[in-house]
Amino acid sequence: MSIHPGTPSNLFKATIIQKRSRHGGRAWGLALILLLTTFLYLPTLAQSFVSWDDQGHLTENLQVRNLKPDNIGAIFQSDVNQTYIPLTIFTFAIEYHFFSYNSFVYHLDNLLLHLGVVAFLYFLTLCLGFSASVALLASLLFAIHPMHVESVAWVTQRKDVLYSFFYMLALWQYTFYIQEKKVSVYFLTLLFAVLSILAKPMALSLPLVLFLLDWFLGRRFNWRLIIEKVPFFLVVFGIAWLTYAMNMRAIDLQFPSAILTWVWCFVFYLAKFVFPSELLVLYQVPRSVSLLNAEFLFAAILFLVLVLGLIRFKQNRIFLFAVGYFFLSIFFLLRFDDQKDLTIVADRFMYLPSAGICIFLGWGAMRLLELAGKNDKRIRLFILTGLVAIIFVLAFMTSSRVRLWGNEYLLWDQVAKRYQNAVAYSQLGNYFLKKDDFKKALENYQRAIAISPSYSKPYSNIGMVMVKLGNYEQAVEFFSQTIKLEPKESGITFTNRGYAYVSLGRNADALADYNHAIAVDKRYLPAYLNRATLYKNQKDFTRAMADLDSVLRIDPGNKAAQNNRQILRKMILDENSH
Questions:
Q1: Is the same domain home to 213 and 309?
Q2: Which end of the chain is more exposed for a tag (fewer CB within 10 A), N or C?
């Protein structure tokens, strides 16, 4: 049975138990969806990490490298890139403990979490009173939509699939609480809400969506509904504040450009979801923010059409639910300006907010088939054929997008061709630098600087190229330029410049840089290791050993420190023997 506009769900009726038993017969359909999704994402299992935040979150994050109680405590007291995601980092720590940096495991777990979200969406749709056919189609659209590839194929976005896993589980459990009013189910829902917000701050929307479920399922709005949500608001908003406080800034509201930017962001997600062409790892806000710009004019027209649609179809509960779910899930990511962030829109931000739209589209497709069957079976066949074609196209686009995430050159070349973006060229330079193709690396770094002279990373990367080429004087110049542009984030660059100074025989300057790098970040291991090498070469064995001991206190399994300690001990023995 499908829910029709204007009629409340019959979740509270005794027949819901009978309905669930009938839905159980469609479990094979869900199994096929999960199997298809696994097939589409199989290539990710052979892909490695990418040089786009995987370092800071995982491969260079020392907190994932041990599961000792004190380190687990530190994980839950720390942020990553000014975002509080301790549960996500904790899952990385578990994987590292058993499998080190085997990328297969990390990608597999992302895929399994995605499959879990798909399954929970199916069960939630059933509990909202929709037919199994609607639930299957909604889950299929969510599972294979190409806009979701970024959240699944990119290991760093474990936070997306992890928070969504617990978020969707919380919503599903909440429908049971509405029906049964059991305290145990309520606290289970609250537990899943806490786990979701610990995975990613986007779970901030959960208490609001619970109110939306109350409305959709016909609960009368009263004080009880408000009191039920108080623990959710306290816990979820309290934890989310940790991230918000770190990123809080004054918003530069310049009307009407601020409103147009907000509208553009809102429409961007809906338009990309309906027409998922030219999906990119990085988007750029159109310049010239005014209605004279075709992109902003188009966004304003679509937004107006949506508002008029809400007024026209205000009795259609399913349409209102879909728009309400989308808006409540994403409104705090809709920006009025783009002055701080690298990008203010991204495919990954649409991962969970698209669930309501998938339910609406699933219901709409089944409704069309139902109406067509009453009039002309040929029309029904035409609609069914079109639906299959859309599913095939989406699956093909997802498959192509998945493979693209396995090729960093194509991933960033796509962005560079679309926007002539400095970040894209810098990432392309990194790609060639890893392959020791210094000529192409320099070409891309120089393009990045030409586009954005104040962007610091290309200067630092050119410095690394100069080090590899043995041009240490030039390396010092580029590292110094980086420090000038980004003095607060220059610990790594000070260490690299220190290495160049050592190669030039300027040991005093090198030592000063290593000392500064350690002062900036007391856990930055390369600075300790380089300084230990400098002390060793100066035969200051006591300080060299102290630095190696510091490394092993921070990272007990560090092979470089362990090997250098053995070499240093041998040198001390040889020195003493003389």
A1: yes
A2: C
